[in-house]
Structures are given as structure tokens and as C-alpha cells.
Write a structure and sequence with these properties.
The chain is an alpha+beta fold. It has one domain: Roll (T-fold). It contains 6 helices and 12 strands. The strands form 4 sheets. Strands 1-2-3-4 form a 4-stranded antiparallel beta sheet, covered by helices on one side. It has a 4-stranded antiparallel beta sheet with strand order 7-10-11-12, with helices on one face. The protein has a two-stranded antiparallel sheet with strand order 5-6. Strand 8 and strand 9 form a beta hairpin. Helix 1 packs antiparallel against helix 4, helix 4 packs antiparallel against helix 5 and helix 5 runs antiparallel to helix 6. The protein is globular, with a radius of gyration of 18 Å.
Length: 247
Amino acid sequence: MKMTRDIMGMPVAVDIADTAASAAPFERVFDYLRYVDAVFSTYKKESEISLINAGVLNINDASSDMQEVFALAEEMKKRTEGYFDITRPDGSYDPSGLVKGWAIRNAKRILKELRYENFYIDIAGDIASSGSNNGKEWSVGIRSPFSSNDIVKVVYPRGRGIATSGTYIRGLHIYDPHAKKVVESPYVSLTVVGEDICEVDCFATAAFAMQEKALPWLDSLESFEAYGIAHNGVATMTRGFESYTNI
């Protein structure tokens, strides 16, 4: 059973393969994501993050979820050598690069607590899965950055998270906090697979900002794999990535 919504300004798809699935678990997930949007959207003037950026609300007086996200952001900044940073050049905060993966992680937890074991959550191409799809592996297609109708690689995440950063849909949008500018990366697409979707999402963003160092850095990490596509169409990958392309 599959349902889709537009939430957080992005397409959301939830697919539950358990035979006992009804509309209720889907609405639990969608309601949770609407809550996340209300709290963390930088486009909503009354959201907590907007109030923090406006100087109306102190982070120490914010919700426990906001404080958790800020703590995670600081952790991700340290683990990525400063390449993941939610602080904008003007000093305001934009945690959206972390919040999407964090929300998917929590949505996965909601379904687990409801005792669903076989499902797939996709928010704008960032994905978490559990179990199987009617006995078959869940699969994720990596789209060609040059032709959106073409799939260049099929990945079987096996319960892990998968996220892609790139310039082929949104154009240049990844900021390098060290160079203090938007990055022109050698990659047009960079896909990362790892145990936790929140970490995967952050690491994909950070690695893209690292430019030429992206794949070597990801290859040095334990339990993370990556697949990058350059401007000339040549693909490179970390040593263990192929293990996710075989059933």
C-alpha cells in the first residue's frame, strides 16, 4: 500500500508492504512531517527556526526537538571537518540539510513502533527502508544527471539510508563554509549509502562541498559507501559500493 503527499515543500512517498497496513500509519507519518515543517521551515515566519533567526526566541528556550537538531548539527560539523554547517553567511541558521534525514529517521521509528516491518520512506529522493517489498529487496534507482528518464544504477539499500546531492536539478546550491562560497564541484551527482539516513543526508551534503576530496573522504569512513558522477558522465565509487548493487 502506497501513499504520497507534498509536505515540507517536497514530494513524500510512503510504501508499506505489510498486509495489515491501513491508512492510519500513513497519516501518522504525514502528520509528523507536517509538524516538522511547522517547526523547522525557514519559509514560515512563525516557525521556531524563523523566530530564532529573528532574535525572538533563544535556542535554549526552544523545543526539545530544536535543541536536538542543533546538537546534531554541531556533531555533524565536527565529523565532517566543518563542511556541514547550518550557519548561513549572514549568521542565521538553516538546518534543512539535516532536518530531512532526521525526519525520515523519526518517521521510520514511528512505523517500527506501530510494528510495521516492511516499508519504504522517500522524501525528495532521500530514502529509508525496512524489510522487503513482498519478499523482494527494496530497490532505488539513481537517475542520470543528464537525462531524468534514465536510471544509471540500481541500488538495494537493505535497510540502510540513501541520499543524493547534486547540481543537476537545483543548480549550484551547496555552500562550502571554508571557502565561503557556493561550490562548483567536479561532481554533478553524489549518492551516499549508510546505516543512518540522518548521517547519510548530512555526509552527502558535506562530501559534495569537499569537491575532489569527496570520494576519498567517504571511502575512509566505516560503514559508508558512495557513487559519484562527474560532469563528463564518468562514474566513480567507493570500494564497497558494488555490494549494494547486487541482489
